[in-house]
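# nightly structure sweep
# worker-07 picked up a monomer target from the shared queue
# config: single-sequence mode, recycle default, output format = structure tokens
# input follows
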Amino acid sequence: MADAKEKTVANVAAAKKEVETADTAEKKRGRKSGSTNKEAAKAKKSPAKKTPARKEEENSEVVILQYYGEDVDVDKVVERIKDTFAGEGHRVSSIKKLQVYLKPEERAAYYVINDKQAGKVDLF
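# output follows
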């Protein structure tokens, strides 16, 4: 059993040495052919085959609020809130936290952005 373990260790060491020797030889060949290390790295990183582009999946979540025969998509309300926020001179990318309170009886959506800015948009 000790002999098998020693053979395995020897095989691993020999394989590691072969890889190191191959890497060294490859680096030398890259320098001799006039190519730079960056070009060699790009050549290694470029894929052999192009994979077909995946279609981006659309958001399958839709929330619709219905109130006395009127419908509103909640995502549209959030877009209106962001547009209003941007119209006030703020950057939409600065929104870290958005809280929306829907009040259909008042036909309004109230919002609080980053616990600082508050406002109201029409719901319907």
